[in-house]
Amino acid sequence: MTDAPDIPGQHQDKMPADEYKMDPAPDYTPRHPGVGKLKDKVAFITGGDSGIGRAVSVLFAREGAKVAIAYLDEDKDAEETKRLVEEEGSEALLIRGDLGVKDHATKAVEEAVAHFGKLDILINNAAQQWIDEDLTELSEERLRRVMDSNVMAYFFCTQAALPHLKEGASIVNTTSVNAFKGNDTLISYSTSRGASLAFSRSMAANLVDKGIRVNAVAPGPVWTPFIPGSMPDEMVEGFGSGSPMGRAGQPWEIATAYLFLCSSDGSFYTGQTLHPNGGMRVGA
Description:
Blueprint: E1 42-46, H1 51-62, E2 66-71, H2 75-87, E3 92-96, H3 102-116, E4 121-124, H4 140-161, E5 170-174, H5 178-181, H6 187-207, E6 213-217, H7 226-230, H8 233-236, H9 251-262, E7 273-274
Parallel strand pairs: 1-2, 1-4, 2-3, 4-5, 5-6, 6-7
Helix pairs in contact: 1-2, 1-9, 3-4, 4-6
């Protein structure tokens, strides 16, 4: 059983927020020695600078993958993730910019392929969220920003990656427990995660004959920069205590689902969703 750290009230007026400012720091560290499950693979990981993306980057590196880390503008977090990947004996390429802009998403994937020579894994993970309890107060600008980050970027990165993905390749899209149960204070975010779930299932059917597997991971409450970046102090304090396990998940606990789906362990999985959510019952 993982102990639940005390999470005090805190807020950052920034989305995405910065991991290095969080208290306590999220736990991204893999728990087991690598056994080469992703040896010689190349992964393109969006939002790889922090949170779940950082944990996935470090775990993939431990298992032998080289990683391209695409992120918006969190340079300090991204540099730290690069250092952590290199500490695992692997190589990281940092690619900065807005993946919700198709031209940048295309160039980012092409840069990764040019640098590493190939692409085997695409992790569409970067996203943004805000509290929006009252739909009438949700601005068009905010709504478009959520959809550009959480939906359009997934389309654009996948479009750019497909010409480089061969049989045996894997795509994993981050969705959310909120795509299944809804959330009255995260309306736009939950809607966007429903889109990423439908995208995953549709692309799985579309690509199965090409031998490319597409799956999704639907985390529950996880201690990442999303939380202080989108919630007021009083909502952050004790975050995750309402889950059946009585705590928030840590990024390392979520990253293992991505490893399973991208390695040969998950070779009979496509169009599926894994639910690391602390015991919440949702429709699969």
